[in-house]
Sequence to fold (95 residues):
Amino acid sequence: MGGVLFTILDQRLKVLARAEELHALPDFLRIPLTEPLFLLGVLFILVVMFLPGGIAGTVDSWMRKRRGSAHTGAGLEQLDSAELADAGQGGAVVR
Fold:
């Protein structure tokens, strides 16, 4: 999903960077807005900060809320307990 979104945004941001409306902006706005990679980097930082479960995880939680089923996080708890059980039996846990 991330690769598809990156490709679409990369194409659309290149079009935005060539827009005539940007040339009327002051330099401190025009220069960063004409750099598609800068905009992608800012978008990446915002997604990491405000969507810690990622885009797919956020969409999944929204869909669960819409359907009325609460996300308990049981899947992660099961993984953690399995890792602890492996560590207790002499298995190596790599983090």
Remarks:
- Residues 2-88 form one domain.
- The two ends are 25 Å apart (CA to CA).
- The CA atoms of residues 2 and 11 lie 14 Å apart.
